[in-house]
Amino acid sequence: MIRVLDLQRLAVEKEGRTPEQVAQAKDPIYGVLSSFSIWEDLINDMEERGPGQDFGYTYLNDLTVRDGLEEYCEALQGTAHTKLTRTLDRLDERYRAVTHEDGGAQLARYWRPLAEGNETRWWWTRAPNDLPPGWVR
Questions:
Q1: Which of 54, 58, 60, 113 has its CA 20 to 30 A from that of 44?
Q2: H or E segment to which residue 127 belongs
Q3: How many CA atoms lie within 13 A of 7 on its CB side?
Q4: With contact defined as beta carbons under 8 Å apart, do 65 and 35 qualify?
């Protein structure tokens, strides 16, 4: 089932691409496993180094990747759903440890849906414990 989700995602990612780009694309950039890797890499970076200078837009991208992980888990059933949900829960626990709930105040400056009150998913309403350069409390 994961492969089916990845193939569906690859088809979406190929839309609007040149024939050469389509021919080169073998795996989706934001497939199931690659999305888990992106989410885990963000958390590792926050745990080990804290946010760097280019953190802002990378962070927003990685939060949208987390959105996709939620959708992937909802699309799966049975053992695959259980395993991926458990893995995501463990990663989310680590994410909570390096962030704090601020109601989205920090990210509302950068993410319009949050500023407009349209974004309510919990990972969007948290700010890094160590704010990147240029962010103010």
A1: 113
A2: strand 126-128
A3: 4
A4: yes
The structure tokens listed for 64 are 């949208």
Of 15, 18, 54, 10, the C-alpha closest to 35 is 10
Residues 119, 105: Cα–Cα separation, whole Å: 12
Q: Are 30 and 9 in contact (CB under 8 A)?
A: yes
Predicted TM-score of the model (pTM):
0.82
Contact 72, 35 (CB under 8 A): yes
- 93-126 per-residue burial string, b: 16 or more CB within 10 A, e: under 16: eebeebbeeeebebbbeebeebeeeebeeebbbb
Report pLDDT digits (tens) over 55-93.
767 888 999 999 999 999 999 889 889 999 999 999 999
In the numeric block, which tokens belong to residue 74?
């909802």
